[in-house]
C-alpha cells in the first residue's frame, strides 16, 4: 500500500487500516458504501499500483471471516475501483493500465531469478508472489478489466524475456496461452531461440529438489503437447488461416532444434559433462507415449515420432559404408550410448513392428543415412522386439532380391551391414552371420544362382569388401563359401586366394581356426591353445549327448590335419590324475583311439604321463599336508603322547546363538579356511573338481585329526554361516560349501555336537545335522544365502564325484542339503515350480560356478534340472515331506521375507494343492486326502510351537505361539482354516458323522497326548499342559462351528458334541481356570459355534436346548464356565442369536440368563433368590456373582436371605467355595486371599450346621460314581478334587460337637481324607508313586505340609475316640491304607471299634 516515513506498510491488511481509522475518529458516514468510496478516494491519491496487485493475500486474510463470496466480491470491487480511478486520471483504458502494471510486476519477479542464474524456474518466494499476482489478474478478467494482447506485447518489451515457469503459469491458469504469447512477438527466430534455451536450462535443473523435478515434468508435458498440436498438424487442420502458420513454424522449429541439441550431445557423449547428459535424459521423457494418453491427436503424434526417427537416422551422415564395415562392432546394443538406445525404445513403442520396418526401409532407400545410428537402431530393434528377427530377415531378403535384380551395390552393402549387425547381438535374437551367409548363398537356390552375371556380381562385391573386412568374416567366406557350379570354380578360388592373402597380412592363420569357433562373436580372437581347449570341451559334450564321435572332429582329422594334430589332440591329451571309474573324457579318448584318430605312441605317452603325475601328487601332497600338520601342532602346543582315544569320545559343546572363540584359535582357523578357499579357487581356474586331486580332501582330514581343534573349527563355522552367512561373498560361499563336503567325508572322525539347544539336548548332533542347524531360512537374506550355499555344495559334490554310482551318491551326499534346495529353489523360482517358460537345462559347469560373477539363481535352476539331481529327489532319504516343508515355512519371519504377501500366498497354494496334496505318502505327500493334509498341518504347527518354547537362544517370550518374539505365520493358519472349511463342506454323510472314528481333530489331539504320556514327573506334566494350551489355541483359530459335528440319526439331523465333551472332560478340564471353569475364550468359542451349527436345522432353538441339556450331565464344566463368564457372554450370544434367527432366545439360554439375573437381583437386595430346578447351576451363578461383586463382607446376611428348601444350593455353594479355597493355595495371585476364602467357606458351613444339613457327601463322593454330588466333581479339575483333603481339614474349626453323632459317615470321610492327605505328601517325596497326575502336597502354596498333617492327625485321633459305634460299620476297608501310611491311626480305629473300649480312651482335651 502507500509508503510512509516508517517504510512500506503493505503487510497490513486494508481492513486493519480502516479499523484503525475508526478507532481514532468518529465515523460521520451514514453507510458502509459511502465509507468505502471515501477510503478509495483517499488511497488513490497515494496508491502504488505495482504493490496494489500483490495485496490480494492481505485482503484475503482480513476477510476470511466473511466467507469466500464476500471476500472475492470485496477484492474485485476494491482493485477494479482503484484501477478505474487511476485510469481515468491518466486518461487510458483500465485494461491497458492493468496489463502494463502486471507486466511490470512480472519483470520485477523474474529479475531475482536472472540474478541467481536460475532463469527457468522460480524460487518459493517468487512463486508465492506470482500466485498472488495471477489471482488478482484472474479477478480483473471477470469484469473485462485486463487486456491480454497488450500484456503479451509488454512482456516482449521487457529487457529480458520472461522466465519459462512464469509463462507456464500464465498458460496453465488460462490467463494468456502460450500460443497467444508466441503470436504477439514478430521476431520468430528470437522466440525459437528463447524457448530452446529455456527448455535446455529447465532440463538441467531436474536434478534439484523433488518439487522442482515434478514441476519441470509438468512444464515439459504441457509445452510439448502444445508444440505437438501446432507443429505437426493433423490432416483436418491443414486448412487453417495463414496467421496460425506462424505458431506452426515456431513449434516445429523448437522441436527440431531440441532434437539437434540431443543428437549433438549424444555424438560427443564422451566429451560432454554429466549435467548436459542428465538434461538430455530429462528431455527424452517427452518421447514417453503414456504422456499423451489424455490427448486426442494420434496422427500428430505418429508424424512427430516418424519425423524424429528419420532425423536420427539421417543426422550428420559423414561415415561411408567402408567405415561402417570396419567400425560396426562398436555399435552393438551393449556398446551404444544408453541414452540413444533409450530413445530408440521409446520411439519403437509408438509403432507396430511391421510399420517400423517399412519406415526404416523407406529411409534406407531415400536418404543418406548415418550408419552408426542406423546399425545401432537395428541392434536395439532385434534385442527389444521378439518379432523383429523375422522382419529383419524379410528386409534382408528384399534388399538382396533388389540388389541382384539391378546389380545394385548399395542394396548389397546395406543387406550385409544389417545382417552382420543383427548377428552381433547373439544367436538368442538373430542367427549367426555364418548361418545367414550359408542360407543366402550356400546352395544352388541362393540369390546368386540365377545366372553367371549374378555370380560374378557377388564375387566382385565380396572382393571389394576384402580390404575392409574383419578376419572373422573372411573366415566365414572361406570356410562356408558360396555355392559355385563346377565350371565357375575359378571365381571362387580367386576370391579365396585374395581372402587368405588378406588374412596373412593380418597375421591370422586359417589353419588355427577352432572347430567350434564363433565367427560372429564380438570378442577378440583367442589364442589357438585356448580355442583348442574350448573345442575339446564342446566335442566331449556332443559325444555325451550322441554317443558318437562328432562329425567336426572326424572332418578335422582329415581336412584340417595341422590344427587337429598340433592343437586339438594336445589339448585333449593333457596329463591329469585319471579317475578310478572312467569318465567321459577317457571314454571319448578311447573311442578316438579305436577309430585310429590318435596315434598309439601318443596315447601311450599320455597314459604314462598321467601315471607319473599321479605318483608325484601322491608323494608331494601327503608330505605337504604332514608339514602343515606339524606346524599346526607346534602352534597349538599339543603333545604327541596325549590320549587320543579319550579325546575322541568327548562331545563338542558350543552355543550356536552366542559362539565364543579365543583370539588365537580364531586366527588359526581363519588361516586354515583361507588356505582351503584360495587353493580351491586357484585349482578351479585350471581344472574341474574331479581333476584337482586329493589335496583338499587330505587337508580337511588332517584338520579333523587335530581333535582339540574341532570345537574351535565348528564354532568359527557357526559364526561365519549362522551369523554372517548373507554377508559372505561368492568365493567364501564356494569355499565353505566345498569344505563342508569334505568335512562330511570325514564325519566318522568328528564327535557329536551339542549346540546348547533344549530342543536338541536329548542327543548330540552329527556333523550333517549340525549343518542343518546352521543353514536357517528365517529372513529373505538367510533364504537367499541358504540357496547359494546348498547350490554350491551340491554342485561341487556332483562335479567332484561325477563317476560315482547312484547308490554311492545317496550314501555320501548329506540329505539336508537336498531338502533345503527342495524348499528354497521352488520358493524363489517359478520355473522350478513348472510355472512360466521352461528352457532346456544347460550342462552343469563348474567353470560358471567358480567364476567371480556367478548368478546363483540361474545356477540353482540349472542344478535343479539336472537328471542326476532329479533322480536323487526320487530317493526316500532326500524327499522333503509335507511336515518338513511346513517346519521350514513356519521358521520364516513374514515381515522380513523376500516374498511379498501375494507371492508367499501363491507359493503356499502351489506347495499345498499342487505338490503335496496329490503326492503319495511314500514321497512325503498326502495321497490326495484332505483330512490327512489337515492333520499334518495341525501336528506340525503344534510341534513347531512346542519347539519354539524350548528354543535354544533362551530369549523368547513365553507366549503360546512364539518363536523369535513372533507368532506362527498367519498365512499358514489361513491355509489350515481353508482346509478345515473345505472339510466342513462335506461334514455330513448318509451313514452318519464324518467317519466311525469320530471327530478327526480331537483324534489327532488325543494321539499326540498319548505320545507325551501322563507321567508324574514335573517335566512331563508341564509338557502335557503346554501341549494342551497349544491345542486350545488351534481350536480357537478354527471356525467355532468346527467343534461340533452334524450327524444323521435316521431321518433326523442332530448336533454331536461327544468328542468335544470328551476332550474337555479328559484334558481341558485339568488345565481350567479357577478349578471349575474353562477360560472365557474356549467357552465363548464353543457357544458361538453351537449357535452357528444350529443354523442348519429346522428348529435351531431345540437343537441348542438339546446340547445344553446334555452339557449338564455329560460336560457340566461348560455350564459352570458359562456361569462364570455370563456377564461377558450374554451380549455376544444374544446379538448373534438375533442376527442369525431374529427369534426369541432358546429356552436353555434364557434359563442361564434368568439364573444370572436372579443372582444379581438377590445380591443387590432387590428380590428374593429364585432357585432353578437344578440347584448346582443356581449355586454356580450365585457364587461367581458374589465373587465379581465382592460380597464376602456381607456373606452371613446373604446366607440368611437364601430361604428355606435350599439345602442342595448351600451344599453346592460350599463346593464352589472350596474350589476357591484350593485356588488360593495353588495360585494366590489368581484368587482372593486365603483368609477371606476360608472365612467364606466357614460361613457357609456354619449355615449348613445350624440348619442340620448334611454336607459330607461332597467329600464322600471323591470316588467316581458315588454320592449325589458327583456332578460337581465332574465340573472340577482332577487336581483340585485331589486336594479336597486340605480343604476338609481347613474346615475343622467349624465342625459342631454333635456332628460325630449326627453323621454316621463322618468318621469314614475323615479317615479317607486323612489317608489321601498322607498319600499326597508321600507322592511329593516320591513322584514315581503318583496316582493323581503328579499332584502332591508340596505343590500347595503357603502350606506347611507337616503342620497340616499333624493337625489333621491330632483331630482324627480325637474324633475316633468320640465317635459312636455305628460310625465304625464301614471303616474296615480303610484300615489297610492306614496301616500303610499311619499304623497308629489304624490301631486307634481297631481299638475304638471294639465294644469293650471306653469312649474316653484318649485323655486329651476336646477340640470342639
Automatic annotation (TrEMBL):
Which residue range or ranges hold the Fanconi anaemia group A protein N-terminal domain? Answer: 155-508
- Positions of the Fanconi anaemia group A protein C-terminal domain: 1177-1384
Q: Name one GO biological process term.
A: interstrand cross-link repair
Q: Which Pfam families does the protein's record reference?
A: FANCA_arcN, FANCA_CTD, FANCA_helical, Fanconi_A_N
Locate the Fanconi anaemia group A protein helical domain: which residues?
Answer: 529-610
Lineage, top-rank taxon, reads Eukaryota
Q: What InterPro entries would the database entry show?
A: FANCA, FANCA_arcN, FANCA_helical, Fanconi_A_C, Fanconi_A_N
Q: Provide a GO CC annotation, any one.
A: Fanconi anaemia nuclear complex
- Name used for this protein in its record: FA complementation group A
Task: Give residue ranges for domain Fanconi anaemia group A protein arcN subdomain.
Answer: 619-833
